[in-house]
Amino acid sequence: MSGVGGLPGSPGRLRQAVVPGATDLPRLLAGRGTDMDSHFGLWGPMPGGGPSLIDEVERSGLRGRGGAGFPMAVKMRSVAGGRAPVVLANGAEREPVSHKDKVLMAKAPHLVLDGVSIAAETVGASEAVLCVDRSAREAVAGLARARSDRLRSGVDRVAIRIETSPGAYVTGEESALVHWVNGGPAKPTFVPPRPFQRGIRGRPTLVSNVETLAHLALIARFGAGWFRSVGTVEDPGSALVTISGDVSRRGVYEVEMGADLATTVGMAEPAATPQALLVGGYSGAWVPAAPPGALGYDSSSLGAVGASVGCSAVCVLGPDRCGLAETALVVRWMAGQSAGQCGPCIFGLPALSEAFDGLVRGDRRGSALRRVNQLLETIAGRGACHHPDGVVRLVSSTLRVFASDVDAHRRRGPCRVRPGALPAPSAAPVFR
Amino acid sequence: MRRYLAVNPIACDGHGICAELLPEMIRLDEWGFPVIDPSPLPPHLERLAKRAVQACPTLALVVRESATQDRTAGTSRSGGSRHS
């Protein structure tokens, strides 16, 4: 990281931080640990928040990094007008192939906590909660240590409460997380009202992904222009991405939005030329592996091929795998993660899983494919949350990208390839 | 003012009374849960719709002023849900 000044040690001394070189990456992952002095030594003191910061955030074009990509400034404005708002930092990452939030909280907890503090001040909240998945031990430890350092030094003007949340895929959905903080199960609720209207204890609540808040902490220091110096016009800034699957260097990387997808995947060193990529986790979409230069990691490029950044997790499928067999496992797993609240999800997802298994086993008369297509139509848009829609999106993309495999399975029955690229964690969902 | 039928899928238990009372706008899927016509409620069906809303044993059926509740939007453009 070039251009950052300041002396180590000596807590309490004002440090002069030079704006880091605009195009330097990593940004979020530039820090070297959870030590508070190193953090402020690297980034400079934490700036205050305030209503004028929302304009800066608007100029920065920061979008949520939790999956929905919603403009952060709009979210902040809608909460800032409310009575006694609350900030809820969402670190409840339960997507099996996404680890970016856990890594961020483990390696740069102060950046996340800076973001929470600044957001709280900006929207006028005197209460802030950060939820971290209780099984994410390193993240929990990193945050705990960071919080105790901050409490001792009094750097936060708002008390930040840290809660360890339970394990289910839908826990990270914003209404589910609010429901849990309010003492209920971590299951989605029917909206409206949305959390920004009535959330924690009925107050207007700013629910924001921890990575988004970390970006906020840097925008507050270095400004919108700096943030926008990497990325694209529509998708500015940098983003964390988890790369997994058939690669030898699985892990969390920081890339600029719009980076070439093939080159990005290449950083993780696939063993052989991939056949396809699962973009956006288990509620994302398959895309055929593109050659370098063909596909950018941003919403409009991915949108053109039926995908989106989503939770920013990319799984690489090697050439010897069967995309259908891998997807079948994921669909069955996702059916098991239903919160069990809505008929079309409770009944629809298992039915879809069965029909999809039929496709994989061999479908000479084509009845399994017809049944899958019928269920995709029936299920879409009929749950209280987007969980069933995610599965519909995944399966639709599978039929599209692996159409020749669907045909081969139909004519010849199951292939001998065993799935193994995508994990299906065995623990049942826990909502409390 | 355009009004739309909607169901709270969490409250819904698949009793199916709504589809009996308002088959013009509601049919049941294979598991007995309502599939609601997303087009605006025609004025001549308003009275039947009101009956269906009142007849729902779990208060799951509602009529509201906006077409969709997009969960990915941080701002809601609807006037909220109403029991009529």
Q: Could you explain the architecture of this structure?
A:
The complex is a heterodimer of chains A (432) and B (84). Chain A is built from 16 helices and nine strands. Chain A has helices at 36-43, 51-60, 72-80, 100-107, 109-123, 137-153, 174-181, 210-228, 261-267, 299-303, 323-336, 343-346, 348-361, 367-379, 387-401, 403-412; strands at residues 86-91, 127-133, 160-165, 205-209, 238-245, 251-256, 276-279, 285-288, 313-317. In chain A, the strands form two sheets. Chain A has a five-stranded mixed beta sheet with strand order 6-5-9-7-8. A four-stranded parallel beta sheet of chain A has the order 3-2-1-4, with helices on both faces. In chain A, a hairpin with a 5-residue loop joins strand 7 (276-279) and strand 8 (285-288). In chain A, helix 5 packs across helix 8 and helix 11 (323-336) runs antiparallel to helix 13. Chain B has 84 residues and is an alpha+beta fold. Chain B has helices at 17-21, 46-55; strands at residues 4-7, 26-28, 34-36, 61-64, 81-82. In chain B, a hairpin with a 5-residue loop joins strand 2 (26-28) and strand 3. The A-B interface holds A 68-71, 74-75, 78, 188-194, 196-197, 341-345, 347-348, 378, 382-386 and B 8-14, 29-33, 35, 69, 71-76, 78, 80-81.
Instruction: Describe the strand arrangement of the main beta sheet of chain A, using strand numbers.
Output: 6-5-9-7-8
Annotation, overall tally of beta strands of chain B: 5
**What does the oligomeric state look like here?**
heterodimer
In helices, the fraction of residues of chain A equals 40-55%
| Class per helix and strand makeup of chain B | alpha+beta
Query: Which consecutive residue ranges of chain A, at least 5 long each, have pLDDT under 50?
Result: 1-18
- Beta-strand percent range of chain B: 15-25%
Low-confidence stretches of chain B: 70-84
The helix-strand sequence of chain B is EHEEHEE
What is the overall pLDDT average of chain B? 85
Count of helical regions of chain A: 16
Distance between the termini of chain B: 15 Å
